[in-house]
Structures are given as structure tokens and as C-alpha cells.
Amino acid sequence: MIRKYIFGEPIDTEAVTAKIPAERWETSGKYLKETAAEEGHAFTCELGEDDRLYGLGENVRGINKRGWIYESNCIDDPGHTESKRGLYGAHNFLIVDGKQRFGIFADAAQKVTFDCGYTKRNQLTVTVTEGGFVLYLLENESLRGLVKEFRAMIGRSYIPPKWAFGYGQSRWGYKCADDIRYVVKQHRENQIPLDSVYMDIDYMERFKDFTVNEERYPDFPSFVEEMKEEHIHLVPIIDAGVKVEEGYPVYEEGVRNGYFCQNADGTNFVGGVWPGRVHFPDVLNPAAREWFGGWYRVLLDAGIEGFWNDMNEPSIFYSEEYVKKILEKHMPFRTDNADTQMRKFFELKDLALGLSNRQADYRLFYHQCHGQRVRHDKVHNLYGCNMTRAAGEAFERFSPEKRILLFSRSSYIGMHRYGGIWMGDNSSWWSHILLNLQMLPSLNMCGFLYTGADLGGFGADTTEDLMLRWLELGIFTPLMRNHSAVGTREQEFYRFGDTDSFRRIIGLRYALLPYLYSEFMKAVLEDDMMFLPLAFVYPEDTFASQVEDQLMVGSGLMIAPVYQQNAGGRYVYLPEDMKLYRMRGKDSFETESLPAGHHYVKAALDEVLIFLRPDHLVPLSEGGNFTEEVTTSHLRLLHYVKTAALYELYDDDGFSRDVTLAGHLTRITVDADGSICTAGASEPECELI
Ligand code: MIG
After folding, report:
1. Given the CA of residue 454, which atom of ligand 1 is nearest to it?
2. pTM (2 decimals)?
3. Domains in the chain and their CATH numbers?
């Protein structure tokens, strides 16, 4: 059951694809009560002592969002600490689960706040700042049902090509073709599977979008081809800002056609980002969006099949206007000694520190949006979404048959139809393994299925044990990429002593690929989640609803990765009897049957724990050095059969856009006596292990 209420004159975010008739809002509805707000609209709901809150996509803190205040206001902030109220995305879908169970979607282009029991422990307050918006209330008998209902309303999630489920190596710092060749060579020589290498901003000519530095990459198309022969896909980054430079066609076309965001006086707004002075393409204007998307063609024509969109909050290092202001305010300090007036010193310091991503800068420029001129802050949360949509729509035009890999840093719900997201600039901290785990189900609720974090951590120096432990979660995430920042310790697997463990863990991912791809695709095609909190699968179990560090992955298995330094294991809660496969790679493992309840489970540094539910199967392939080598012709089944188990394996060619479950499923059944039966799209040879 979905109810829709319109407030004021909303800007159409295009998040919702379903046609839902609007109803008249009663200020004191069944679930939410409208209360006085300083600005905009506020809605509250009383929370019972044990009520839980789920959703909000990309955010800090737990799976249960209760106890903190979150703000949807996309920002480039590399400090993913508990004190933050928001990150790069705006994912305004929240579920209340307790005395009453319902979902809220605040479909608003402007800032929205979710006070989840922060001001008053027993009160939820959702505040939408000034401007029109649409409020949706959803009800359903189950948590999973609520998510499915929401997902059906926002449209099918993005599907990447199958190779994008392979391992990707990245680093902000690879400078030229030879750097990349070296990365590939090391992986192949060490037999660490690899499918892609990412190209960060240094591939461009002075950070100009859709250019390739010819000194660093002479004859780029033939380099792309050379990599393809090695079964490696290169994935370049695209930044939101377009360099201001005479003679640069992207700049000149944008200026000529009025496709950039403008100041109040109609001149083009200038921000400072990596290329120096930039204009921001007005991707909210459909004509500009089509034009900007069109430029991706340059790289597609060079053979590129995947992209990551960055800096699209948009991140603004500085605006020219504010720099002028700061310089003026600095003047007195030339003669005035702050020594006696510390207040002045702090003023000076704050001026400089407040240079980037200022809220005030977002009020300086305008978009052409649905025939109206709209100030940026009123549609701020739609920018990254529409930059990625620009690319996604272009790929539908240029590559109607074949999927193109696309993921973005900033996002709004609705973007999940065009691309995935990565979780941004995390750090090489143990706590960020847990954060990675906790974001997964929250993102799935909001439609983002193709996602993952920078494995090993982006900022700060990683360590070998952190990297291994992180991978033991990372091998389950659709996007599996090792990425790190310039200046940090190098973290390619061959930089560490124990290459063998890395090879085995990544090898296990490739063996798990048929299962993971199958679960991903079923989740996409059935508007379902791939990563579920235990509470969603065992709603009657009061312990399960409190578990914040374990997840169900698809239908059959549960993961409980170790995320503490020097831990030789961890406590795990089993809501039902499970069979543990303690995997040392794909070929070597031990099993153990564990009864429902609490357990301390040992896990050596190189072991991946897979918990199997009763009457479930997980197929393992023979693996491969790259995804194309992985086949489903011979499957080894992880199994826990009490009465009978069924697995529905989905598979396809890995690139066609137009896919359905029908015609792609193989049913694998195992009886209590161990007999195996297969029927459907393929005829894999199966064995129990
Ligand atoms: O200001 O392109 O999140 O993945 O390596 C930093 C350089 C810009 C931020 C991205 C990160 C990327 C980095 N970018």
C-alpha cells in the first residue's frame, strides 16, 4: 500500500517511475503528524522503546539508524567518522519497524533531515527544508515486502556487465600506460585474478574531461586493445567540472550552447577543482545532459567499456567570489598582529579552512530545469544523479546492445537505474570494514545494488592484515575494487609478503561468481535485496534484529567477517542451525555444523567464513584468472541438506541489456540421500563438496 502526498510545487526529481495518484494530506495521519518547523515542513512519529529504523542508504553508523541525526545534503567529505550527518548521496528512504511498520520516502531535491531519535530519543522527525516535495508512505506486512514495494515504485536497478564482478585494481597515482602494464603483469604472474584496472585523473590532459594525455598514453586505442587481449578492461574516471580553456571543444561547445550552470547575471559560474577554473555542465537541463553524455563517446570509440563519475556533489574546492573575499579579509593581518586577539586568529583560520564545499557557494549558481531557472541549492541533491544519468542515457544510445559499466560517487534515488555507486573516500581503518558492511543493506533498500567500498581503504596507510580481513567481506560485494589515495602506502596485493593468501581469497571470489552474479541478478529482477540484515530474514528473532555485524548474502548464506585487528575469530549469532564452511580459497576448506545460538568462531587471517542455511546450496565454479574463464559447466555445491535443497541459478551472456529471469534459470536440487538433479536453462555437472 503506497500513499502519495504533494506539498507545494515540487521539482520533479524523476526518482519514481510508477504512476501513483496523490491524496490529500491530513496533518495528523496514521503514521506521521505534521509539526511546526522553523523552515519547510516537519513530520514526526513517536517511537517505541525497541523500534528500529532502517534505510538512508549511504551513511555512517549502524544498520539500525536509530539514535543519530542524518542530513541528505550531498557532500565531498573524506572523513567518514561517526560525527558526520551525511556523505555523498541523498537517499531519503527510511523504514520504521516496531509497534507500527511503515516506510517513508521524502522525494525532495533540497536538503532533508532525519532526526532518528537524536533530539528526543523516542521521536523521529523528518524535516524537508523550504520548497515543494512529495512524501510517500508505504505499508506492508514485512520489512522485505516494504523494500520490494518501494523498489517496484522506483524502477529496476542498474545492471553492469558481468566482467564488472571481477576484481578491479585501482590507485590514484598510476600515471602512464607502463604503470598499468606493470599492475597487470604482476597480477598475471602471481596468478591473482584480475578483470579491470582503473584510470584516475592523471590519464587526462591537465584534468580535462574526455581527453587522454598522449605522452603518457601514446596511441590510446591500441593500448585499450592490448589490455583487452589480456582480458583487462580499463575504467577511466570522469570529473564533473569542465576546464575553462579556449580551444578545448567541451568548454567551447558548452559556452556556445549555454549548457553550463550560470551566475545570477547570466555569466557562467566558475569553480575551482582539479583542472583549475571550471564550469559545471547543467545536467539538470535535458539538452545539456544529452550533450554532456555525448562526450563519453570519445572514450567509447577508443574501446572503453566502463566509467566512474567523480566530484559530482559537485565538489567545489573554491569559488572565485569567496577567494576574493578571503583575500580582502586577510589584508588587515599584514599589519595587525593577531597575537593579542586570538579571536582574529581563529577568524583567519576558519576563513581558509572553510574554503571548500561551502553551502554559500551552492547559492551562487543556477540551472535550467523543466523550463525554470532554479538556484542550485534547491536541487543540489540531484546533481551527481543527473551527471551519471547523462552518461547512462548516452550509453543506451551508443551501446543499445551491450551494458557499459558505470558508477558514481554522488547519487540520489533514481540514479540507481543508470549506475552503481562506490562508497567514496573511506580510510584504512578497521572500523571502516564494519561501516562497509553496514552500508550494504541500507544501499540495497534504496535501489543501489551494484556497490562496494575501496577495499583496503582509500585514505591513510593500510596494513596486510587489514587488507586481508577487508577482502573477506569485499569478495562478496558486487563492486570489488582495491583503491587508494596518492601518498598512502601502496596496497596492490603483490606489495605484501603473503601473496598466496590474497591469491586464494580472490580465487574464492571467482569460484563464488556464479552464486554472486545469480543472487545479484535475481535481486535486480525481483526488486529485492542482495544483502539483508538478519532482522529482514528472521523477523521473529529478537537477537537477530540487534545483529549489526553479520549479513545474509542472497538466499543461502550468511557472512560474519572479522573486522578487529589481531582477532583470531569472533562471536557469531546463528538464528538457526547452520553449516560453517571455513574456506582457505576455493579448494581447501573445513566444515562444522553449528546449532542455533551464540558461538565464538575461530577464523585465521586467511580464512573466509561461509555459513550455510539449512536446505540451501551455494554453487562454486572452478574459478578463473578473469571472469570470462569462469564457467558453470562444472559446479561444486556447498550444501546443507536436512530434507531437500533447491538452488535457482541465474546466468546469462553477461552483456545483453534486455534480460529476464525466464529462460535463464537452472534448478539444482539435492535430496536428503545426496542425489542431485538439474533442470532448466543449462545442464551443469554438479558434485557435493
Ligand atoms: O579530490 O581523482 O573519491 O576515488 O581517487 C579527490 C582523485 C578526487 C576523489 C575520489 C577518489 C579519487 C580522487 N578523487
Report:
1. 4
2. 0.97
3. 2-154 (2.60.40.1760)
